[in-house]
């Protein structure tokens, strides 16, 4: 929990900190989101052997997921803005839950690609919905920290997967792995629909906390309705898209290819992958919360929000760069795991601050659309990169070195572009 300030509602009954319970639900949703998408990466060596895939087949399947993700991202953002977070979020989770379980019926690369396409359609709405919910439930000074907390669910999902999936696959078959993870989605859906409401409608929210949540909002912030074309004319929207376009494919690379890298480079089988992956994504989890904590701490020391966000992003961008040296670790698996863990931690700290850019620069009614716009760019880049990675690994006989060099350099370039487009983060002036 963040430290109390004079304006913060006093702790006591559960309702006086209700916004953190909402953050917990966002964390849960993000966890199962990444748990579902991580299953395929962990099963990659098994499926390659059993179904006869090559790297190009796998790259196509991953690319199909990201094409669907890209196509749905801007639509998901608008859908969340239109339906509201309660029903829009629930619809998205129901779609990706069904698609995740359909993987259990697939047997060919084409069938896996179809199931993956459906998963991408549903999962695209997670971050637009979560960011918009954060904007609804948190004042600006807490949004990066809250985003860091729920965004850490990406790492918890990726951490649970290497513990759960091998156990289920070895005892019940790989097909049951997709069913088992989908059941977590069902649990979240029931809790969300029964309990979640908007702040102004939630009966358990105290007056003091409601006033605290709205303490730094503009008076007309909650009633602004904006056409999509007006949003994409803003440099801040393109700055967010640039950040996602440059760095999201790196995260996809870690999610979908690190298990294969550990198998190819160090001969790890399905049962041996668990501990290295747990270490990597535990580090990423710490980085996610730490990235939000850095900017929150700087703001608490009197820094302007714009400078605090960008300083935190610069620290994270610099911390990523050592991963480019991974092929010079002398064959030490744990040295490689350490470098990847540092890179994933820095990525998640970067993301915690990048995701606050839409809520820092746009009215709340437009946040879902801006996040969807940027997410579309990140997913399109990821789709292209996934196909290129698959072809490169087949062509080079699994030479990962150039891929890690690219992964280590993308963030500093992205931050430079963001700074050129938006030298200072401030609310854009838009017509209703």
Outline:
The chain is mostly helical and 432 residues long.
What topology emerges from the helices and strands here?
Elements: H1 18-51, H2 55-83, H3 85-102, H4 109-123, H5 126-137, H6 140-151, H7 153-172, H8 174-195, H9 207-213, H10 228-232, H11 235-266, H12 274-300, H13 305-320, H14 333-354, H15 357-361, H16 364-395, H17 401-421
Helices and strands, in order, run as HHHHHHHHHHHHHHHHH
At the third CATH level, what is the topology name? Growth Hormone, Chain: A
Helix count, per DSSP? 17
Q: CATH superfamily membership, which one?
A: MFS general substrate transporter like domains
Q: Which CATH class?
A: Mainly Alpha
Number of strands: 0
What is the terminal-to-terminal distance? Answer: 36 Å
Overall geometric form: globular
- The structural domain count equals 1
CATH architecture assignment: Up-down Bundle
- Proportion of residues in extended strands: under 5%
- Helical content, roughly? over 70%
Instruction: Give the overall pLDDT as a whole number.
Output: 85
Low-confidence stretches: 1-6, 11-15
User: Gyration radius, to the nearest Å?
Assistant: 21 Å
What does the main sheet amount to?
none
Structural class: mainly alpha
């Amino acid at each position: 929990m963040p430290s109390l300030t004079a304006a913060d509602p006093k702790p006591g009954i559960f309702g006086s900190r209700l916004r953190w319970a909402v953050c917990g639900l966002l964390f849960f949703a993000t966890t199962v989101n990444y748990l579902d998408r991580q299953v395929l990466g962990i099963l990659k060596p098994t499926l390659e052997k059993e179904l006869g895939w090559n790297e190009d087949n796998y790259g196509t399947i991953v690319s199909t997921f990201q094409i669907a993700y890209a196509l749905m991202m801007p639509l998901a953002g608008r859908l969340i803005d239109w339906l509201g977070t309660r029903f829009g979020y629930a619809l998205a989770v129901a779609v990706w839950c069904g698609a995740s379980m359909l993987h259990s019926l697939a047997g060919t690369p084409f069938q896996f690609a179809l199931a993956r396409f459906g998963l991408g359609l549903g999962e695209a709405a997670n971050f637009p919905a979560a960011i918009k919910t954060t904007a609804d439930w948190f004042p600006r000074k807490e949004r990066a920290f809250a985003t860091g907390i729920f965004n850490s669910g990406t790492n918890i999902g990726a951490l649970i997967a290497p513990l759960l999936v091998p156990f289920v696959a070895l005892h019940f078959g790989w097909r049951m792995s997709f069913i088992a993870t989908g059941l977590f989605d069902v649990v979240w859906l029931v809790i969300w629909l029964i309990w979640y409401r908007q702040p102004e409608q939630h009966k358990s929210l105290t007056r003091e906390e409601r006033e605290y949540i709205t303490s730094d909002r503009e008076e007309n912030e909650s009633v602004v309705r904006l056409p999509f074309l007006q949003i994409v004319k803003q440099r801040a929207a393109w700055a967010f898209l640039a950040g996602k376009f440059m760095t999201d494919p790196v995260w996809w690379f870690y999610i979908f290819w690190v298990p294969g890298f550990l198998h190819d480079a160090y001969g790890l089988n399905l049962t041996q992958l668990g501990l290295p992956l747990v270490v990597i994504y535990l580090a990423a989890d710490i980085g996610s919360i730490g990235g939000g904590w850095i900017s929150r701490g700087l703001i608490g020391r009197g820094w302007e929000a714009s400078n605090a966000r960008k300083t935190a992003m610069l620290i994270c961008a610099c911390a990523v760069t050592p991963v480019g040296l991974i092929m010079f670790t002398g064959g030490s698996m744990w040295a490689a795991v350490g470098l990847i863990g540092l890179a994933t931690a820095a990525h998640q700290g970067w993301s915690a601050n990048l995701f606050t850019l839409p809520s820092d620069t746009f009215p709340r009614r437009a946040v879902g659309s801006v996040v969807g716009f940027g997410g579309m760019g990140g997913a399109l880049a990821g789709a292209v990169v996934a196909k290129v990675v698959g072809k490169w690994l087949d062509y080079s006989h699994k030479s990962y070195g150039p891929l890690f060099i690219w992964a280590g350099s993308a963030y500093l370039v992205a931050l430079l572009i963001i700074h050129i487009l938006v030298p200072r983060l401030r609310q854009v002036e838009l017509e209703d």
